[in-house]
Amino acid sequence: MVIKFKKLSEDAVAPMRANPTDAGWDLTAMGIESRVEPDIITYTTGIAVAIPEGYVGLLFPRSSIYKKDLELVNSVGVIDAGYRGEIMLKFRFTKEMGTGYVPGDRVGQLIIMPIGDVFFDETNELPEGDSRNTKGFGSSDNLLNRLSS
Known about the structure:
The chain is 5% helix and 35% strand. Strands 1, 3, 4, 6 and 8 form a five-stranded antiparallel sheet that branches. Strands 2-9-5-7 form a four-stranded antiparallel sheet, with no helix packed on it. A hairpin with a 5-residue loop joins strand 3 and strand 4. It is built from one helix and nine strands, in the order E-E-E-E-E-E-E-E-E-H.
C-alpha cells in the first residue's frame, strides 16, 4: 500500500521506520504550535497524509516516551480517511517542570490499520458472553490469578 503525504513546510521530515518490520512510522516534531495550558503542549509535524478509505491512521507515543515527562493527551489519536490537515500530537507534562521534545525529535508514530464495515443492530437480548459476562474493570484478574497458581 502506498500512502500519499504532503510536506507542509520545506523542513518537514517524511514519516520513517527505523526497521523494515516496524509497525509504526515515526513522526518528527517541526515546532510547537501552542501552549494552551501550562501543562499541555502541541507539536506540529509539517506532514499531511491521505489515508485511503477503509483504513484509519492511529497516532501513538513512541516507546521512548518514558524518557520524557510527557503523556499523549488523547491516549491514541485517530486520523480518519477524509482528514487532510497537518498531523499534530498533543501532550501533557507529567511533572511541573518536565522535559519535552524539541524540533527534530521523533515525537510519535503513525500506524495504518484496516477498518471493516460495521453496522449496529439494536436488539433486546445479546448472546451469552464469556466468563466475564457483565463484569467490568479487572474482571479477568481472578482468572489470571487462578491460572498462575
